[in-house]
Amino acid sequence: MRSSKLPVGSYVRIEKPQLQTIVDQLRCRGYRTLGPRLADAAVVLDDLDSIQQMPIGYLDEQDGGKYRLQLAEGAGYFDYVVGPHSLKSYLFPPRETLLRCAEVEGQWQMETPPAAAQPLAVIGIRSCDLHAIEVQDRVFLSGPYVDPNYAARRSALFVLAVNCRRAAATCFCHSMKTGPAVRAGYDLALTELTDEFAIEVGTEIGGQVVGHCDWAPCTMEEINQTREQPEHLRRQMQRRQAAPPPAASGEGNGRPRGRYLDTAEIHDLLMRNLEHDRWETVGHRCLACGNCTMVCPTCFCSDVEEVSDLLGRNVRRERIWASCFTAEHSYMNSGTVRKAIAARYRQWLTHKLATWIDQFGVSGCTGCGRCITWCPVGIDLTEEVAAIRGVEA
Length: 393
What we know:
alpha+beta; 8-stranded mixed β-sheet
């Protein structure tokens, strides 16, 4: 085993079991390590101590309202695509205490919980989710009001990203120019080859961590392979192929597939068609369950509530996730503004793909496809936009 500091931009290769050395190094440095795990028949993000806890050899089959996992001969360590979890729930928790109030000797004392956070290292993040973090950074870190809790967690984040070599039927990152190749925002970027991992060093600390592995420099052929693999996938996704069940052959990458979203002038397209008949059509299908907002890696709506103990002497002010699909989200003193489900879906889609650009200068969608997969009735936003545009998806 070596101990050296690899410079930023280095390409090295390691045997696949050496990934455990990276996990061990991160834990030794005080990081809480997260990675892909199997839970409730899905690949989720959870605490990871050993690479043997990873869903090695699994492939996922995804489509509108459908998610299935299966073991496949020849599948690698990272041949599944994204599951229901993203880093949003760790950087922007579903429930967070903002203020504590306690009655002490007849007087109220208030305390703001410290913003310090345990360093977090996440293994296996894809390019679409790295772009989602960039979007959330604009929400919570840009402008005059910075969220101190988000900032503390964000600054303590270590990312080992993975270049995709498969795409699910619901993926459309190529349409949003957010993948499948990892471009920025990582400490280490991993490309899975047949028997080894090729790793690009993105930061100084990334070079220190991988330097403890038994590594060897990549050949130019291997470097070219790390660059061509996601590019080959992108070109095949652009062909908008039909989506067969995942194949269990070769490296387990199957035939790439994915959705397509035409983003040309999409802001003006949606804002010109606020009274389009399609909103009522999709409103009849939508359950207003909020699944799409919960699994979306960029949705940031929240509410604040006061939580008291039974005696009323200790009160917590908590921020909790909210959804624009609930009636309460648009409640004003005159009542609920968006009473119809069609209006709520229109609010979500036009904000995600249009007015988000007005607010933050970037789309709120990264093409991960989670909202399609985890919608109980399989509503597909790429189909909805195509219908409004007047073309077949």
